[in-house]
Specification:
With 396 residues, the protein is of the alpha/beta class. 21% of the residues lie in helices and 25% in strands. Strands 1, 2, 3, 4, 5, 13, 14 and 15 form an eight-stranded mixed sheet that branches. Helix 2 packs parallel to helix 4. The chain is globular and about 65 Å long. About 2% of the residues have low confidence.
C-alpha cells in the first residue's frame, strides 16, 4: 500500500497548521497521506518515531555548498544537508556567471541534498573576497544570459552589500543588482554586515527602500557595521517598512552575523525572522555554526516557539523560493522530504557569532531524514565534539 510509514511522532507542519501525533505515509517519493492511525497493512517499511518531532525536510535559505571553492572552502553539501535534517540547501551566490557551470555539473548531481542556486552578480562569485571592488565587477548581461540558460534552476540573484565598490557607490550597487533580478524575474538576496568594519550604516539604511516584496535581506540580526540598528535601541524605520511590504528577513547566522543581543532587540521591537538559515561555509562550520537544527535551538532559547522556528526553516523559505507546493510541506502530493528530531530537555549553552553565550532548555537533534522518499540518514550530521550544545547547570 505505502512504501514507507513514519508513525507515532509529533507532526509539526506549518503549511497545514498541523501540530499533533500523526503518521506520515509515503509512496513513489511523494507524500501520500498524513493522519492519525493510518492503515499500515502492506507497507514496505514502517519506522516508529514515538516521542520525536516530525517536520517537513528543513530548508537552509542561505549556505555555501561548493566544497573547496575559493576562500570559503564551502562544506560538502550532505554533511549539513540530509545528514542533519536539511533536504534543501540554497547556495547563496558562491558562484557567478563564469563559475556557475562547475557548481551545476560537478556538485549538484552528486549530492543527495537538493541544491537550489542563487547567482552572484560578480562573474567569479566568491572565488576571491572582496569580490566587488569596482563598477565593472557587476556584469549584468552575462548574469542575465546564464540565468536564462538555466531558467528554473537558478532561483535568485545575490549581492554582498560590502566592499570597496559599495563604499563608493552606495545604493547604486544595490540598484544594479535589483535591475538584474527584476529582468530575470527572480528575487534578490542582499548580504549586510561588514566583516572589516569599513562600511557605514547609512548605506544600509539607504539601500532598504530598494528592496521589493520577495527580496531577501540576509544577516539582518548582525551586530557588524552596516547592520539595521547599530548603536541604536530600535531598528531603522526603513526595516519596519521593508518587513511590511514583504521583504524576507533572513537570519544567515554565519561566523560573523548573528548577535543574540541584536536578535533579542529586534524580537522585542516586533521584527521577527521570516527564515532561519545558517550561512554554513568552510570558515564558520564547527566554530559557532553547527548546522540548521542547532541554529533553531538558539531561537527557541530566544523565546520563539517550536512551530514558529519550524515554519522559519520549512514553509517560509519554500515560499521565498516559490516552491511551496513542492517542498517545505507535508501536503499530499508534495515531495517526500521529511525530517525527524529528538528534542532534548535540559540546560544547554549556545554561542553567537560575537562569542556571547545564551542558555536554553531545549536542543534540536536530527535523528532521521527522508529525501524524496528515500531514508538517507539516521545520523546526527557532522557530529564534531560539542555539536550538541553543552549542558550547563541551571541558572536558578
Amino acid at each position: 500500500m505505502y512504501d514507507l510509514v513514519i508513525t507515532g511522532g509529533r507532526v509539526i507542519d506549518p503549511s497545514t497548521e498541523k501540530d499533533g501525533v500523526a503518521d506520515v505515509a509515503i509512496t513513489g517519493g511523494r507524500i501520500a497521506k498524513v493522519g492519525r492511525n493510518l492503515a499500515k497493512e502492506g507497507a514496505r517499511r514502517i519506522i516508529d518515531v514515538k516521542g520525536k518531532v516530525v517536520t517537513p525536510g528543513l530548508i537552509d535559505l542561505h549556505c555555501h555548498v561548493f566544497n573547496g571553492f575559493g576562500r570559503f572552502s564551502s562544506y560538502v553539501p550532505d554533511q549539513a544537508g540530509v545528514l542533519s535534517g536539511v533536504t534543501t540547501a540554497v547556495d547563496a551566490g558562491t558562484t557567478g556567471a563564469s563559475t556557475f557551470k562547475s557548481l551545476r555539473d560537478f556538485v549538484m548531481p552528486y549530492a543527495k541534498t537538493r541544491i537550489v542556486p542563487f547567482l552572484h552578480v560578480v562573474p567569479a562569485g566568491l572565488a576571491v573576497i572582496p569580490e566587488l571592488n569596482r563598477e565593472e565587477d557587476i556584469q549584468e548581461d552575462w548574469a542575465l544570459q546564464v540565468i536564462e540558460e538555466n531558467k528554473g534552476l537558478i532561483r535568485g540573484v545575490k549581492i554582498r552589500f560590502t566592499g570597496p565598490y559599495v563604499r563608493t557607490a552606495g545604493v547604486k550597487a544595490a540598484k544594479r543588482a535589483r535591475s538584474i533580478a527584476r529582468q530575470a524575474k527572480v528575487p534578490l538576496m542582499v548580504h549586510i554586515g561588514e566583516q572589516h568594519e569599513r562600511n557605514v550604516p547609512v548605506h544600509t539604511r539607504a539601500m532598504l527602500p530598494v528592496l521589493e516584496a520577495g527580496d531577501i535581506l540576509t544577516h539582518f540580526a548582525t551586530a557588524r557595521n552596516g547592520g539595521v540598528m547599530l548603536n541604536t535601541k530600535r531598528p531603522f524605520p526603513e526595516l519596519l517598512e521593508a518587513q511590511k511590504r514583504g521583504v524576507v528577513l533572513d537570519i544567515g547566522h554565519g561566523g560573523n552575523n548573528l548577535s543574540f543581543d541584536v536578535a533579542r532587540r529586534l524580537l522585542d521591537a516586533g521584527v521577527r525572522p521570516f527564515s532561519i538559515s545558517t550561512d554554513m561555509a568552510g570558515g564558520n562550520r564547527m566554530v559557532c555554526v553547527f548546522g540548521l537544527p542547532d541554529t533553531l535551538g538558539k531561537f527557541l532559547a530566544l523565546g520563539m516557539s517550536m512551530p514558529d522556528v519550524v515554519r522559519c526553516a520549512t514553509f517560509n523559505p519554500a515560499k521565498a523560493l516559490g516552491m511551496e507546493k513542492e517542498i517545505g510541506t507535508l501536503r499530499t502530493g508534495a515531495a517526500a522530504d521529511v525530517a525527524v528530531f529528538d528534542i532534548l530537555e535540559g540546560h544547554f549553552e549556545f554561542q553567537d557569532a560575537e562569542g556571547k553565550k545564551l542558555h536554553g532548555d531545549q536542543a534540536v537533534i536530527p535523528v532521521l531524514t527522508v529525501r524524496a522518499g528515500e531514508v538517507v540518514s539516521a545520523d546526527w550530521g557532522p557530529r564534531p565534539t560539542g555539536w550538541v550544545p553543552p549542558r550547563v547547570a541551571p541558572c536558578c
